[in-house]
Design a protein that fits this description.
- By secondary structure, the chain is an alpha+beta fold.
- It has a 6-stranded mixed beta barrel.
- The protein is elongated and about 95 Å long.
- It is 55% helix and 16% strand.
- The chain folds into 2 domains: 214 residues, no CATH class; 153 residues, no CATH class.
- The N terminus is likely disordered.
- The chain contains 17 helices and 10 strands.
């Protein structure tokens, strides 16, 4: 009879997946009690907490990092840049605009200098600023730049040569408003004057360099403090007096900034056909070259956050490993019975593997659903948290008679943000879900190795 049973079991196994494995795995989950029940509930909760925490944290980190990256790429560095481009060859820009994958081409000049309010008696303390000189139609051509610049006062109008757009923080430092006059002094002009100052005149501000007076046409905000505190935009012709008028820099935006190789190759071909590759100073570079250190630091920061929060899965995996080993010992008699009727060692281990898969699937799903809800409604979530905390603080202040304080997770006094950013990347969500699933499955499979040490004859000898 035993041989017949083993033969039938072998035949069923050869015919396909042994469905009794699923049945036994579900039975172990349904029939658990006491410590065994706890050994399944706690891992599910642990995986759910890990998935929830990691998904929300990474989404918020993506919001901050991508916000910084996009501000840098759209406002400052562009996707591809051509430095020291001859102004006499401006007709080549039209050919570059026709390159497949290119969305916008903008020539610009950049000058550093001092800005100060041109008030009565030349009052006001100067600030160090970067003057980005652009064509007057730049916003109509560059949608990326237009999306990142928010005009708070006035308008973005560079048609006048003496018009200037100032960052909101820079205007606050200068005490300036729209319509005020701003004086710009090029550093290239004042450095010789600084070097020639006598000790008696060391405290004076030299004015021997190129100097111009601009009228503030508008105040802008990018959400990036460095630009809002020290940047200004003027007409591209207005900066010709401070730099070499024979050259400018070309900023190129791509439809897909991740696809650099093909557009870069075509742009280099256009430059070579125009004979500009003979220009010694001309250099073509990409956003990865300009921001390699900064973006590398952001990537390392995100990786370390992934690892630190991912330690939750290691703790849960150890819990699952110990729980499954205990179940193997508790179910020793049933395992021996299954082995006696023809179940192989891999079949028995498959029961525990499927058990681990169920735990990982339940925990990952239980954590991912609320995580996505929170990540996509992050503002409402933090508002709810702040309301609860402030309610508790007000009660404590009322009981103690002290003055209550307002709690804010991301206070504008500390963080230069208007609202908490959040970006959910589908690939990362899938990876986090997979971590939760695999942490339980691998632990259960490793714990089931104990099955190989169980000898049915020894266990059933005295039964």
């Amino acid at each position: 009879m035993l041989e017949k049973s083993q033969t039938e079991t072998t035949r069923k196994r050869q015919g396909g997946f042994p469905h009794w494995i699923v049945f036994v795995a579900f039975r172990y989950i349904r029939k658990k009690a006491g410590r065994s029940q706890t050994s399944s509930v706690l891992p599910v909760l642990g995986i759910a907490v890990g998935v929830l925490a990691l998904t929300v944290i990474i989404a918020v980190m993506n919001g901050f990092q991508l916000g910084f990256i996009e501000s840098i790429l759209e406002v400052s560095s562009y996707h591809i840049r051509i430095d020291n481009f001859p102004a006499a060859s401006s007709g080549v820009l039209e050919r570059i605009e026709q390159v497949e994958g290119v969305s916008a081409v903008s020539p610009f000049r950049e000058v550093k200098g001092l800005l100060r309010r041109n008030a009565e008696g030349r009052g006001g303390r100067p600030i160090l600023a970067v003057l980005r000189a652009l064509p007057d139609d730049v916003l109509s051509k560059d949608e990326g730049l237009a999306s990142k610049i928010e005009i708070m006062r006035g308008q973005f109008n560079l048609t006048e040569k003496n018009a200037i757009l100032l960052g909101t923080e820079a205007a606050a430092r200068l005490g300036a408003r729209t319509g005020d006059k701003i004086e710009f002094i090029s550093i290239a002009g004042i450095l010789p004057a600084v070097n020639s100052l006598t000790p008696a005149a060391a405290g004076a501000l030299p004015t021997d360099g190129a100097e111009s007076v601009f009228v503030i046409a508008g105040l802008f905000n990018t959400g990036f403090y460095e630009y809002d505190a020290s940047w200004a935009f003027v007409n591209i012709d207005a900066a010709a007096d401070y730099s070499d008028s024979e050259y400018f820099t070309v900023g190129i935006k791509l439809r897909n900034r991740w696809n650099l190789d093909a557009p870069l190759e075509r742009i280099n071909a256009v430059v070579k056909e125009a004979g500009l590759d003979n220009e010694a100073a001309l250099r073509v570079s990409t956003w990865r070259d300009y921001n390699q250190a900064f973006f590398g630091a952001l990537r390392t920061e995100k990786l370390m956050m992934f690892v630190l929060v991912g330690l939750i899965f290691i703790v849960v995996a150890l819990n699952i490993f110990q729980g499954q080993r205990r179940i193997v010992l508790e179910k020793k008699d049933e395992i021996c019975l299954l082995r006696s009727v023809g179940a192989g060692e891999l079949d028995i281990r498959g029961v525990f593997l499927f058990n681990g898969l169920l735990i990982g699937l339940a925990g990952s799903a239980a954590g991912m659903i609320p995580a996505l809800l929170i990540a996509t409604h992050i503002k409402q979530f933090f508002t709810f948290i702040e309301t609860l905390v402030n309610f508790a603080l007000n009660i404590a202040a009322f009981v103690s008679g002290a003055n209550g304080e307002y709690f804010s997770v991301f206070s504008p006094a500390v963080f230069y943000i208007k609202e908490i950013p959040s970006r959910v990347i589908p690939g990362e969500v899938a990876l986090i879900f997979l971590f939760g699933l695999l942490s339980a499955s691998v632990s259960a499979w490793a714990a089931s190795k104990k099955v190989s040490s169980i000898r049915p004859m020894e266990v059933t000898r005295y039964e």
